[in-house]
User: What shape does this take?
Amino acid sequence: MIFSFDSTPYNMSNTERLGGQFYLLEDFMTRQEPLGAYASIADVQRHTSLSRPTIYRLIERGAFEAIKVGRNTRIVTASVEAYFASLPRLPAKAA
Assistant: This one.
């Protein structure tokens, strides 16, 4: 990780400046807390980059298992993992 506490700008291709600090994008993008057994819609959005409407469509189709806790919707994270595991894999490009 690269930190900068002065005003000298670094010109690196895959870095991002945040509050006077530089972070490698790969490190910044992978800083996520692991999900528990149940996750909110917002947590699933953050971890999968799926939109809110897409998540609700997948719940309606039965691809994601969800429960209601009062007014809150919680998704069973094992069902999200199972859904992504069931998707077809793209073949590797020939060199």
Q: What stands out?
A: The chain has two domains: 1-31, 38-86. The helical segments are 25-29, 41-48, 52-61, 77-86. The longest strand covers residues 72-76. The longest helix spans residues 52-61.
